[in-house]
Amino acid sequence: MATRNNNRNRRGGKGKQQKGFHRKIKPKAISRVRNDISNWKMALQKADNVDDPKRQLLIEIYEDIMLDGTLSSQVQQRFERTIGASFQLVNKSGKVDENATQLFQEHPFYLDLVEAILNAPLYGYSLVEFEYIDDALCMKDIDRRHISPTYGRFYPDLMSNTFIPYRETKEFGKWLIEFNESEGRNYGVLNKCVPHVLFKKFAQACWSELCEIYGIPPRVLKTNTQDPEQLDRAEAMMRDMGSAAYFIIDEEEEFSFANGATTSGDVYKNLIQLCNNEISMVISTAIVGQDTQYGNRSKEESSNKLIEYIVKADKRRVVQEMNKKVLPALEAIGFIPGGLTFQFEKEENLKSLWEMTVQAMSHMDVDPNWIKEKFGIQVTGTKKQTALSGLDPFFD
């Protein structure tokens, strides 16, 4: 019966959808130039444009900084706690709909949906689209570079000013769903991380140059630069000696290094550490597992408690978006029955529950089947109490 219902849900609504928005996008090469603060300011100016705000450059900077190890790890460890949480779909009578819950759990787009909802506060918005492919409902992420959420515009071609007001289309709210829609200048949480990641890359580049200078100092060769033959021979000799920096000067010229501040790279190390800490504070509101010099167990435990509050807020956001937008859309498509509510299963503190169970055992009977189901302990019966008479039971 469940299989038949699943097939019916997958076929429901097929043929009603128009050509998907993601199919209208004209691909464009992504710029991989090195970004700096000036690029970020220019991207913000284009996004702040009153008449035609576009976020293409800003989104490209976001995707670039997400390659940073600290930033990506902070986002991942926060999201996985919500993505991996168990959930269920409940009908109007308060009972769990097993068929719909199983359909959601087994369908590939559930993880994509949760990720799109969680990414919306980071990037400022998310736009997804449902589409039937080979009798199976699929979800596609619309490239954020082609979306201007300020006025609800979709640009199929980034080289053209032609747009589609997607919030006014009949697909919006049914086949097309927007998360964290913003009509103002909400540029997302990642906008706060941009300067820290850019300065971190700058410090790493400078530190690597310092390592090269300390590891292989530059070499100097004096020769007659007016003689082409001698100059060519000098250049060949310097190239054959290694890959370190070198320069050739005339035998009558002088060259010397200025006496700069001697450093072992601590200035760059401190800047990188500062940037890592700021990134952690923005994403997780705490510094977790990074400060090994001054770290301690109590500090890590308190930081994890702060992250738990953030994860609870993420779950509330997912529940709200699912019940307000996703489930009504899937119901209109015919993928799931109506009247369902999405909710996460409550997590229990098994350690605290076991302590209370042990205390209750001394005063009342506890169901062995419940203990096996809750804690996985196989209970075969009550333990016999041995006599404390001090005599060998053989003589009793």
List the helices and strands and how they pair.
Blueprint (H helix, E strand, L loop, with lengths): L1 H10 L25 H11 L8 H10 L3 H15 L3 E4 L7 H9 L2 H15 L2 E8 L2 E6 L5 E2 L4 E2 L9 E2 L10 E4 L10 H26 L3 E5 L4 H14 L4 E5 L15 H19 L12 H37 L7 E4 L5 H12 L6 H8 L21
Parallel strand pairs: 8-9
Antiparallel strand pairs: 1-10, 2-3, 2-7, 4-5, 5-6
Structural class by secondary-structure content = mainly alpha
> What is the CA-based Rg, rounded?
31 Å
What's the helix-strand series?
HHHHEHHEEEEEEHEHEHHEHH
Question: Count the helices. How many?
Answer: 12
Number of domains: 3
Main sheet overview: 3 strands, antiparallel
Unreliable residue stretches: 1-15
Strand runs, count? 10
Mean pLDDT: 80
Task: Give, in spatial order, the strands making up the sheet with the most strands.
Answer: 3-2-7
